[in-house]
Amino acid sequence: MTDNYKLAIIGYPLSHSLSKVIHEAALKTCGLSGSYDILPTEPENLVTRIKRLKVEGYSGFNVTIPHKVPITLFLSKFDTNADLIGSVNTVKITEDKNLEGSNTDIYGFVKPIPDDVKANLRDNYATVLGTGGAARAICAGLVSLGVSKITFYSRNVIDSHNHVEILRQKFPKIKIELKPYTLLDTLAGNKILVNTTPVGMKNFLEGVSPVDFQAIKTLDDDAFIYDIVYNPIKTRLIKYAQECNKRYTGGLDMLVFQAQKAFEIWTGQTPDTKAMKIAALESLAQ
């Protein structure tokens, strides 16, 4: 075990990242010394960044867009989830400077969903808004919960086609559809609605919902709404969920739980997720 954990996140851009305060809280709750650095890394600088992380003695690092797939080219080992979806968000640097990749986004997505909702998803339908960086992990999480069909809605079906084809190849036992947003007029028959788009995020169409109120009202009474946006805490979509008396979760819990699992990979210790969430909320309130 190291005496000082040097951790980081790489991606571009990173101006909105809460990872630093979350992981510093994790270090504190476990009584560990260390640091967590925010390292904006443009795609053309990825190779150089990886070399520096090794040389400068980092224990591990998180990976976010646009590097979650490209980073796989530099890894010597993958965990089951990372290997399954071909996307990595957590890298451990071993003592001999090898890179071991994991995907904790799947765990982070599934963990906040209440047990009765998980049971209700089996053999039922799900709708996912967007096909971007988070879609692979979301799809894998929904498949692990036993859904029988996932419908993805995209504003650009042509650009999204290849992303969805990859998911169809990885998960051949379930039906995966791709539809344009213009056809999103009803959500009847779906037991969960997941927003993976940035719509509603602070400084990006803030106050706007990725799906209109009338469509949300068509969801089944026992449907669950999941918005992975975490800033603001209550997006317009979450407010619509409240108005329709639907159960819901925002993106902060997903962020905290994926961080918990990443921290365990790096340190072997389980941090206090309540303290991590409080640190994130305090940062958002500033």
UniProtKB/TrEMBL annotation:
Residues involved in shikimate binding: 17-19, 64, 89, 105, 230, 258
Catalytic activity: shikimate + NADP(+) = 3-dehydroshikimate + NADPH + H(+)
Domain Shikimate dehydrogenase substrate binding N-terminal: 9-91
GO biological process, one term: chorismate biosynthetic process
Pfam families given in the database record: SDH_C, Shikimate_dh_N
Domain SDH C-terminal, residue spans: 251-277
Pathway: Metabolic intermediate biosynthesis; chorismate biosynthesis; chorismate from D-erythrose 4-phosphate and phosphoenolpyruvate: step 4/7
Residues annotated to bind NADP(+): 228, 251
Keywords in alphabetical order: Amino-acid biosynthesis, Aromatic amino acid biosynthesis, NADP, Oxidoreductase
Domain of life of the source: Bacteria
Family indicated by similarity: Belongs to the shikimate dehydrogenase family.
Subunit structure: Homodimer.
Protein name: Shikimate dehydrogenase (NADP(+))
Source organism: Candidatus Galligastranaerophilus intestinavium
